[in-house]
Every structure is written in structure tokens, then in C-alpha cells.
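C-alpha cells please, single chain.
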Amino acid sequence: MDIKTDKYLEYIVEETKKLLAIDSPTGYTNDVAEYCMEAYREMGYTPVKTVKGGVLADLGGKDADNAVLLEAHADTLGAMVAEVKGNGRLRLTPLGGLNPNNAEAENCRVITRFSGKYEGTFQLVNASTHVNGDYSDTKRGFDTMEVVLDEKTESKEETEKLGIMTGDIVAFDPRTVVTSKGYIKSRFLDDKLSTGILLGFARYIREENLIPDRKIYQHITVYEEVGHGACGTVPEGVTEILSVDMGCVGDGLACQEHQVSICAKDSGGPYNYEVVTGLIQAARERGIDFAVDIYPHYGSDADAALSAGYDVKHGLIGAGVYASHGYERSHVDGVKNTFELLKTYLLNEGAGKNQ
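Here you go.
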């Protein structure tokens, strides 16, 4: 790792940690969007907040009629209050693909509309193993689990007096850790890690005074976890969308956390053949550690844009992330390889012309 790359990787990791500390379940993303807006402004860009709540930034470039749009999403999994129960505890409904098995015993915050935030824990109903003989056999689900508030409340009326009501947002602790060996562990690396990478790439272009051959836009979307994050806001002249999201790590796939994953196909179908080929070629020519995989249960912002009717090529890359939608893990090497692939593919650094 050279000194220049090291500088930007440090920035990416630090920005990722800051992003992870901002609660942003899908549908409650204004705070994280404002953070991204300010980050772009500090670099000297002029970002625009979309009507939907995302952030669009123009990074410059020569060819505005063959522009590329990079997309990452800052919305995360979370939950919403579905019911204030008779005992004062809360039944939840998920936001995005939150799995109750992965959220059991996690600390959380209930974000009310008018009365501030309250802390609690997401637990199995009757969670004491010394009392509940069916603890191990009970299937975890949103009807068998509840938020136990860190408040002295034992009835629906007492909880409602706090200002908690149906429709309030529930955000879960990310528990972010960066280990001495370079592993990045946290909830919601999907996709705040890639948001951090895009901010680092934007900073690299500005500080190194680069003018890309193609105009480059970045769009930080805020509804990816529910499938329509990138269904709008594709600037005129964009001919290619490259989604930068988490790379899948698991049985049957080649990618590991130290690599950048190039997705050839996901549940929505194949990615553009020319784009995938160009990404592979760029990675090979630069000596970037990569894997090509097919994701069995996945959909990206690039998929959403095509489903909305945009006539563009599309691709998907991302640092390898293990235990997706749970307590996730990646590595600084995966971040580096993703960053280097963006530089090589889009800025022609150490590789032939991209597609």
C-alpha cells in the first residue's frame, strides 16, 4: 500500500465509522443524507438533495454524453413500531430484510416523532431461560419478540404517555469495531462501507486534481433496502450505472472479505456483459485481488434503475462482506481493492480504456 492510497483508505474507514454511527433505517435517512451533503461540500463539490431524500454529486469529467453514475446506499435495515402492547412493550415490523434471528438481544433506539428517543432491547417474549422452558424451541419472529423499553412502564397507557406510538422508527446498535488486523465488523456495512468508499473516491478526484475522461456522478440512495432507491435521479447523459454495494461472501461463492467482488448475475438477472468484462479486465491489468460471483438472493440499485426503464448499461461491485444483514464483517484489504478497481476502471490508472 503506497502512502497516497493509505491516506484515502484511512479517510474511507473513518468516514464509514461516522456514517455507521448515524441512525438511518430506510425511511428515516435525513440525518445521514445531510452528513453526506456536508462531506461533499467540504471537498468543494455542490451536491443536490433529491426530492426522495438521496444525495447527488457531480464529480466532473469530459464526456457528458457518456457519463457514468456510481451508486451506493446509506439506508439500512431497521424496524417500525407495529403495536404498543398491553404490557407496555413494543411489537415491531421490519424495515427492509431485517431478520429477527440476527437482531435478538440487540440494543435499539425508538425514535418518536415528537418526544425524542428512548432506549430498549429487542428480546424474545419471556426471555429468561430460568423461567421459560420453551426458550430454545420458540421460533424467533416479529410476533414472538418485543422491544423491552429501558423505562418504568408496564402498560400500554404508560408507554403511550412517553410519546411512543405506532409508526415510530426503531434503529439498532451497529456495534462497530475495527480490529488491529484490519477487520471491519458492524451491522449495516451494507452499504455504509461503500458509501464511505464513494466519498473517498470523490475526495481522491478532487485532491489529486483529476479530470476523468467520462463525466462521473455519485448518487447516495436512501431506499435501496426496500427496492426503489435508484428508480429515479439518473442525470441526462448517463449511459452506465455502477452500483457499489456489498460483495457477497458465503458457501458456493469465491469472494472473501479481503477481495473486491464483481457480480456477474444476481436474482434480477445478468449484469451488462461489456461492463462485467471491463471490470474483470481492469482488475487483471492492475493486479487487483478480485472474485467474480453470482449472488442468489440479491438486488441492487442498478437493478432498480433498469426496472424503472432507464436505458443504461449496469454493473455491480463491492468489498466482500460476510454475514450479510446480520453482524457483518469485511476487511480493509477489500476496501482497498474496491477503491483501486474504481480508480482503474474509471480513471484508466494502470489499465486500458474501459468500456
